[in-house]
Amino acid sequence: MSEMSNIDASFRELKAAADYIGNGAIEVPDFDSEILDCIRRESTVLQRIPAKKATGHPTRYFEQTSVAQGGFTDPRNINTTASGPTRVERSAFIKAITAQTNIGLFDKEVTEQQGQFAEVVATDIDDTITGVVRVQAAAIWNGNDTSLVAPTTNQYMGFLTQITQQFSIAAGASIVDGLKTAVATMMSNTMFKPRPSAIYMNPMLIDLIEKEAKTVKLEFNTVEVTPGVTVKAIATQAGNLPLIPDPFIPIDAVANYGFAAPSGGTKNYYAVIVTESQLERRYIKSAIPRIFQLGLQAALAGQYVGVMFDTIIAKGAAYNHAVVCVNR
Hints:
This protein has 7 helices and 17 strands. By secondary structure, the protein is of the alpha+beta class. The protein has helices at about 5-15, 45-50, 105-115, 120-140, 160, 175-185, 205-215; strands at about 20, 25, 50-55, 60-65, 85-90, 95-105, 165-170, 200, 220-225, 230-235, 240-245, 250, 270-275, 280-285, 290-295, 300-315, 320-325. The strands form 4 sheets. Strands 7, 8, 9, 10, 11, 12, 13 and 17 form an 8-stranded mixed β-sheet that branches. Strands 3, 6, 14, 15 and 16 form a 5-stranded mixed β-sheet that branches. It has a two-stranded antiparallel sheet with strand order 1-2.
């Protein structure tokens, strides 16, 4: 091929990649060095509930469900029946969450040589941790396992399934009043002493509550839930409870979590009243996801795998916490 033909071929290739070619101008594509990244990478509930080392697989603990029984008697003829506390063994199996990314050697070195997106490799490796956290954040509420002690799936048994104390707020009834009544009912328990500390719900339910408050001119307090983040709080018999938005709490149009299917084109919104000190995440080895490099494949692509071994437990699921289903 002649030198002129080589020039023509190079010009055609340049023209295919150029934004504009004209007299006195050749404009080629260029990009900002920053990549738009608004991915959700955190979970408020994961930041607020305790993380503890698991005792094993399964992890085990004891729950006291009753104390010795007292009773009145004749002071001159004391008669009593011996009794004692009841303690029950509890356990939960550990679950595994993974995420993987493969990075080709050639593309990695081209990117590094260009210098414009040198941080992409580190970001992609770090994002495997994000992949794990996002799975945790969703499954902590709606994981589809049905038992802690006899697992039926590889997922968590979500809090919406674990928590057995339930309340419903019918369409047309006040959401705020319903939540306050649910908390008051929890606090009136004469056997157990729950300490509700927060109410988690989908942001769409908080929007409904704020609209209700606006119509009756109800003012909310504000509470800081994580450093620099404040949310609305409602006054209850357990004090001011923050309404913490969590987009991973589902909104249903079918029967779920023991609640009936909504009717008439309405939906079920869930509010989870929790005693956060009695929600636990039990982990093996590390409380945060770890990254492992598995070596090079035949094509010299590096394999990076994020791993998390843990499980979630709602202690005192029948009295320390409650799920409120709001029909709207």
